[in-house]
Amino acid sequence: MERTCIIVGASHAAAQLAPSLRQEGWQGRIIVVGDEAHLPYHRPPLSKAYLLGEKSSNDLLIRAEDAYGKLGIEFCLGERVVAIDRERKSVMLRDGASLAYDKLALCTGTRVRTVALPGAQLEGVHYLRGIADIDRIRRHVQPGGYAAIVGGGYIGLETAAVLRRLGMHVTVLEMAPRVLARVTAPEVSGFFERVHREEGVDIRTSVTVDRFEGDGHVKRIVLNDGTALPASLVVIGVGVVPNVELAQAAGLDVDNGIVVDECARTSDPDIVAAGDCTLHPSPYYGRIRLESVPNATEQAKAAAAALCGKDKPYRATPWFWSDQYDIKLQIAGLNTGYDQVVVRGTRDTGRSFSAFYLKEGRLLAVDCINRAQDFMLSKRVIAEAVPLDPACLADEAFSLKSLFETAQH
To answer: What is the C-alpha separation between 356 and 377, in angstroms, rounded?
Structure first.
C-alpha cells in the first residue's frame, strides 16, 4: 500500500516541507491542500515589489510548477481542510470529500487580525495578507490621493513607504506612543519615525481610530478625538492570529500556536506542524512563536525529517528583515527581556546604525540598519553565546570580528 502524506496549507513552510520529504526518503504520495488559487509564493515582497508593480504573481512563486511535478508533489488548490479525524486518519475538505493520510503536516500559518469598527466594510478599506489583497489595494492607488495606514508595525511602515513612492499622501495611525513599539527599542522607533517624516509621511502616535466614513467607498477616517482625515485608501495592519482552530478541534495541544517539540512533532506522533502557526522550543529564548520566512523554512526541514522517522532538531537563531525606502533592516535574535540597548553608529542623522539588545551583558538581539556585516557577526555572537564588553559594541573602531578571535584562544 502506498503511503500518503497530506500537507495542510500551501505556505512557505509547505513549499519547503514537501521537497524535503523527498530528500529524507519519503516514497509515497505528497498532497498539498491550499485555500488560495496559487502555488506557494513569497509573502514578504507583497507589501513591497508586488505592490509597486515591479514583480508579477508569477515572479513571487517559491518554486516553479514543474519543480513540484518532478518530485511527484500533488496540489489541491482553492480547497480547504475543515476537519481532521485522527482516529480514521483522514481530513475532511470544504466540498465534503475526505482524504486519508498516513502522516499529516499542518502549515496553516496566520491570518490578519481584523477590526470591528463602523465603516470597516466600506470599499477601499483593506487588509494585507495575500496576492488578492494587494490586487484590490492597487485598484485604489492614485497619485495625489490620500491613504491611511492603521498600525505602525513593519507591514504598516513598509506599505506606507511604497504608497509614498507611488505618489500618495500617507498618514500612519498608531495607538501606542511610538511605531514598532512591540518589537524595537525607543531608539529604533525614533529613527523610523524620523525617516518616514523625512519622506513625507504623516506619523501620528497615541491615536485611536473611531470609525471609517464614506458613501459606499471610504472617504475619511475619524479618530476618537473627533479629528477627521481624508482617505480614499485604508490599509489595516494590526497584527496576525495563528490558525490553530483545525488542530484544536482535533484535540492537539495548542497554546498561542500549535505546540510542537524541537523536531516539529505535535502531541500526535503522526502529525507535525511548521511555520508561523507553531509554538516551539528555542535553545535561546524558551518557547516561542515566530512569524518569519527563515523560521518556516528551517522548521519545515525538521518536520520532514520527523515524518520519515529521523530526529533533526530545529535550533536556528531567529532572524527577520524589513525593507523601507533605501533602508534594509536586518534583525537577529529576539529582544524580549533586554535590560540595555547599545547603539553603534549615529541614529539621529543618516541611515546606518546598529542597536544591540543585552541582558545581563549577554547579547540577545540586534537591529541592523544598512549594516549587513554587523548582522552576520551578531547572529554568530548570539548562536555561540560569545562573551562581550558592551562598551566595545558602541565603539565603531572596535572590530566585531575580533570577538571570535578572542573566544578561540
So the answer is: 12
What's the CA angle centered on 315, arms 310 and 321, to 5 degrees?
130
pLDDT digits (tens, 9 = 90+) for 47-77: 999 999 999 999 999 999 999 999 999 999 9
Check whether domain 326-408 has CATH 3.30.390.30, yes or no: yes
Domain extent listing, the chain: 4-111+240-307, 125-236, 326-408
Give the pLDDT of residue 404. Answer: 87
Give the rounded distance of the alpha carbon of 162 from its chain centre: 18
Pick from 74, 38, 30: which is nearest to 59 by CA? 38
Is 4-111+240-307's fold the same as 125-236's? yes
H or E, element range at 221: strand 217-223
Q: Name the CATH topology of 4-111+240-307.
A: FAD/NAD(P)-binding domain (3.50.50)
pTM exceeds 0.85: yes
Q: For residues 160 and 152, is the Cβ–Cβ distance under 8 A?
A: no
- Are the C-beta atoms of 357 and 335 separated by less than 8 Å? yes
Taking the C-alpha atoms of residue 211 and residue 213, their distance in angstroms, rounded to an integer, is: 7
> Based on the number of CB atoms within 10 Å of its own CB, is 324 exposed (0-12), middle (13-18) or buried (19 or more)?
buried
What per-residue confidence (pLDDT) applies to 406?
Answer: 64
Mean pLDDT of all residues in 222-246: 97
The contacts of residue 396 (CB under 8 Å, 6+ apart) are: 344, 345
Calculate the CA dihedral of residues 309, 312, 315, 317 and round it to 10 degrees: -120
The CATH code of domain 125-236 reads 3.50.50.60
Cell numbers linked to 284:
535561546
* Nearest residue to 69 (alpha-carbon basis) of 108, 97, 32: 32
